[in-house]
Amino acid sequence: MGQFITFEGIEGCGKTTQIRLLATALRHQGHDVIETREPGGCDIADQIRAVLLDAKNNRMTSPTELLLYAAARAQHVAEVIRPALDAGKTVLCDRFCDATLAYQGYGRQLDIDQITTLNAYACQGVRPDTTLLLDLPVEIGLGRARQRNEQHSGPNEDRFEQESLNFHQRIRQAYLQLADNEPQRFLIIDAQGKPQTVAERIASAMNTIIQPVPSS
């Protein structure tokens, strides 16, 4: 069975960059690594992603949003994550169930118990072994995210960046609470500073969790 490592955090915390850097480091150590993301990760889930993140869909209700995330996750787990783990690979995923608790539970203020049940149904027993929470002040993260979107030439995916500052502050506090609830799974990483500096913090935190693959 492989290892499942998820990256979580507010908008603009640098998850995508840090997943790429960690994947490179792990491959150099001999690990077979899969990089994926949520929502998305496979064709059907990517189509759902386009609907979820498009700023034009500003009339989407919170329950609709929640159910679409669950549908994308169910497909992603069945098609990508579980097969990779069964094959002994290391899976690095940009967001997973904790994001739904933070964004739809605490951000949208939907029922936490219902979200937990829905997550469990979508995941079919798949749970992260380790979750890296990239933490930084909301104002810094939103500034980074909006700058990134201005420079991005692809599909518009800034529906969440248009939410209020208070919404994003609730999400940051939710993540910190989730980490406090499960300290054995979460590693809180200071996401301020240059990408390489953050990568070094992650490498240090992961040092005892993932070891190099012995050469044959």
From TrEMBL:
<dbReference type="GO" id="GO:0005524">
    <property type="term" value="F:ATP binding"/>
</dbReference>
<feature type="binding site">
    <location>
        <begin position="9"/>
        <end position="16"/>
    </location>
    <ligand>
        <name>ATP</name>
    </ligand>
</feature>
<comment type="similarity">
    <text>Belongs to the thymidylate kinase family.</text>
</comment>
<keyword id="KW-0808">Transferase</keyword>
<protein>
    <recommendedName>
        <fullName>Thymidylate kinase</fullName>
        <ecNumber>2.7.4.9</ecNumber>
    </recommendedName>
</protein>
<feature type="domain" description="Thymidylate kinase-like">
    <location>
        <begin position="7"/>
        <end position="202"/>
    </location>
</feature>
<dbReference type="InterPro" id="IPR018094">
    <property type="entry name" value="Thymidylate_kinase"/>
</dbReference>
<dbReference type="Pfam" id="PF02223">
    <property type="entry name" value="Thymidylate_kin"/>
</dbReference>
<dbReference type="GO" id="GO:0004798">
    <property type="term" value="F:dTMP kinase activity"/>
</dbReference>
<keyword id="KW-0547">Nucleotide-binding</keyword>
<dbReference type="GO" id="GO:0005829">
    <property type="term" value="C:cytosol"/>
</dbReference>
<dbReference type="InterPro" id="IPR039430">
    <property type="entry name" value="Thymidylate_kin-like_dom"/>
</dbReference>
<keyword id="KW-0545">Nucleotide biosynthesis</keyword>
<keyword id="KW-0418">Kinase</keyword>
<dbReference type="GO" id="GO:0006233">
    <property type="term" value="P:dTDP biosynthetic process"/>
</dbReference>
<dbReference type="GO" id="GO:0006235">
    <property type="term" value="P:dTTP biosynthetic process"/>
</dbReference>
<dbReference type="InterPro" id="IPR027417">
    <property type="entry name" value="P-loop_NTPase"/>
</dbReference>
<comment type="function">
    <text>Phosphorylation of dTMP to form dTDP in both de novo and salvage pathways of dTTP synthesis.</text>
</comment>
<keyword id="KW-0067">ATP-binding</keyword>
<dbReference type="GO" id="GO:0006227">
    <property type="term" value="P:dUDP biosynthetic process"/>
</dbReference>
